[in-house]
Design a protein that fits this description.
Elements lengths: L3 H23 L4 H11 L5 H9 L4 H13 L2 H12 L19
Helix pairs in contact: 1-2, 3-4
């Protein structure tokens, strides 16, 4: 018998990876990567950002605001901030609060 949960998890993991890469790129030493990530996060939340967050099982608004706070940090402080947050969790600890209500079960 088919279990939908197992089918969905690899796709969700893919979208979580997209967010992880974007967050890490916000702290990249390469200016081009950092600027591309900042544009993707945007000054205003795009439909694309919302879609990626939802596919990752996260609420877009809090994760977007978290990314905006990271962007507001001095570039030299971002890397250590990200390293600390990624030490044990694949996404920052705060993202647990960003899970959609259906994912909190």
């Amino acid at each position: 018998m088919h279990e939908p949960r197992k089918t969905i998890e690899p796709a969700r993991d893919l979208w979580v990876s997209v967010l992880i890469i974007a967050i890490r790129d916000l702290a990249a030493s390469a200016e081009r990567e950092r600027e591309e990530a900042e544009r993707w996060v945007g000054a205003y939340m795009s439909q694309e950002f919302q879609t990626v967050a939802r596919y990752a099982g996260l609420e877009p608004d809090p994760i977007w605001h978290w990314c905006r706070k990271l962007i507001a940090m001095p570039k030299e402080d971002r890397r250590s901030f990200i390293k600390e947050r990624f030490r044990t969790d694949p996404l920052p600890r705060e993202t647990r609060e960003f899970q959609t209500s259906s994912e909190r079960k």
